[in-house]
Amino acid sequence: MDTLSTLDELRQQLLTQKICPNLAASATQLVMGDGNPDADIVFVGEAPGKAEDEQGLPFVGASGRFLNEMLEAAGLVRRDVYITNIVKYRPPNNRDPTPEEKREFWPYLMRQLEIINPKVVITLGRHSGMCFIPDLHISRDHGHARKVKYREHEFLVIPLYHPAAALYNGGMRQTLIDDFLAAAKLAETT
Ligand code: URA
């Protein structure tokens, strides 16, 4: 079976196994992911927001526009990478996902990464980064690659700031662009 069909099967499993039924009840739809199922780079955000919930695609709102800008600055094209979130339903009023919600989605995210098998996993924001690297200090560790083991799989994870951080803090913009460039280079040479 090809990668796209295997990912679609995983999507069906998420629906039939009724993951986070409370979130599912308040959300419009499951936001599974977007992009190239055979990508070298997978971006992992936190959870869908309003625009993502409406369109069924990750990072299509304000932070999505900034993510696209960062990708372009790093010489990457959105359709070549894969983008997803830890939690795949929008939490009500964009509240932070709870640890329990993240835990419920975690095995499915891991399966998603196993299927895509990227060279590099880039986490966006502290919350996403801490799921992979529990002792993460984003201001210290951003841009530094770490090997993370999950069962027999090993992922190269690079924690980055969330694009929304740069929306509210102009000084962070260049830091993010620099980190994106370095991460893209690492993916190319790995
Ligand atoms: N922020 C995220 O972390 N994920 C999205 O999909 C959109 C905004």
TrEMBL record:
The keyword Metal-binding applies. Keywords: 4Fe-4S, DNA damage, DNA repair, Hydrolase, Iron, Iron-sulfur, Metal-binding. GO terms for molecular function: 4 iron, 4 sulfur cluster binding; metal ion binding; uracil DNA N-glycosylase activity. One of its GO terms (biological process) is DNA repair. SMART domains: UDG (SM00986), UreE_C (SM00987). It catalyses: Hydrolyzes single-stranded DNA or mismatched double-stranded DNA and polynucleotides, releasing free uracil. The keyword Hydrolase applies. Residues 32-181 form the Uracil-DNA glycosylase-like domain. Its EC number is 3.2.2.27. Belongs to the uracil-DNA glycosylase (UDG) superfamily. Type 4 (UDGa) family. This is Type-4 uracil-DNA glycosylase.
